[in-house]
């Protein structure tokens, strides 16, 4: 149920994104949406979907790393807790990725992340010509796009990375349930704008003994 709710929300959020972009152009087109605005907009859509299905929903801010603009929220659907991490991916370099691991380790250190808790990571990224950006699709999903030629046509040359998000989070006892990339924006020609990435990941905290 939980995965279905998030997928439904992400599909609906694509329409929200187009509306937001119209009001905040060219900010989104230059730097993407800030984690503060991304989390706020996504939470509005998420709460509406959850409550429409008759479930209770409580979302509270757990922590905010002002230096790295990373937000961590606690989401409770009925009695189930989901941690939501919003890192800033202005670039896809190691430092940006590391913030995800640091946030999870902080949850563990504070005894906030409990066994079987779910964790969501959501961020956006504008493709650039750096190697880290070219590797982002593979690093996030663990595979190349089914039709890589459409990316190449828009000037995106995806590369295979040495590691992947799920393998690195597996070291933190997080098992992957879903890793997806969305492209909610459109170009002036009404084509999907592939240079804009909305990255979603859903994980579950399971002790290492269950993963081996």
Describe the structure.
The chain has 212 residues and is of the alpha+beta class. The chain has 9 helices and 6 strands; from the N terminus they run H-H-H-E-E-E-H-E-H-H-H-H-E-E-H. A 6-stranded mixed sheet has the order 1-2-3-4-6-5. Helix 1 crosses helix 3. The longest helix is centred in the first third of the chain and has 23 residues. The chain is globular, with a radius of gyration of 17 Å. The mean pLDDT is 88.
Short description:
With 212 residues, this protein is α+β, with helices and mostly antiparallel strands. It contains nine helices and six strands, in the order αααβββαβααααββα. It is 42% helix and 25% strand.
| Secondary structure tally: strands | 6
What's the end-to-end separation, in Å? Answer: 26 Å
Q: List low-confidence stretches.
A: none
How many DSSP H or I helices?
9
Structural class: alpha+beta
Order of helices and strands, N to C? HHHEEEHEHHHHEEH
Major sheet characteristics: 6 strands, mixed
Strand content: 15-25%
Integer average pLDDT: 88
Strand order of the largest sheet: 1-2-3-4-6-5
Helix content: 40-55%
Rg over C-alpha atoms, rounded to the nearest angstrom: 17 Å
Task: From the structure above, extract its key features.
42% helix; alpha+beta; six-stranded mixed sheet; 212 residues; 6 strands; single chain
Q: What are the SSEs and their pairings?
A:
Elements: H1 2-24, H2 27-31, H3 35-52, E1 57-65, E2 70-77, E3 80-86, H4 94-109, E4 118-126, H5 131-134, H6 136-141, H7 148-153, H8 165-170, E5 174-182, E6 196-205, H9 208-211
Parallel strand pairs: 3-4
Antiparallel strand pairs: 1-2, 2-3, 4-6, 5-6
Helix pairs in contact: 1-3
